[in-house]
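tool_call: predict_structure(chain=1)
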Amino acid sequence: MVGSSNLPRPTIIPPPSETTFSKKSLERSPKTDYTLAWSKMSLDQSSIPGLGKERLEALTDGIFATLMTVLVLSLSVPVIASDIIGPQLSSEVVKDIEALWPNILGYVLSFLLLAVLWIVTITCFIMLQESIGHFYG
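tool_result:
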């Protein structure tokens, strides 16, 4: 016979007709409860020394600060000829700044977007700390 093997057929065990659980069977034993270890750990300390919550917050703050600073590099100072003076100078400056408005708008919108994301990140850290404190505190 094609495809036959000498392996035994699996045994199918039908589910019980009425499933009942005792309260004790639903409770976890303290030996297997991993949340017990988490509850003993302080919220401000990690299992690795020096890698606490404050370090992660400082890292994310630094990343956002660097990104917000690098955004300025997209802006350039307009070059104005040195022989222009008086009313021609002011009109030339206004014309050059008007030429930069798409870059300035992009900078402002990008800065605001990063600021919103930074605030959301801070809010996530606060909510995480509160939820851990609520369940394990």
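agent: Residues 48-136 form one domain. Proceeding to next step.
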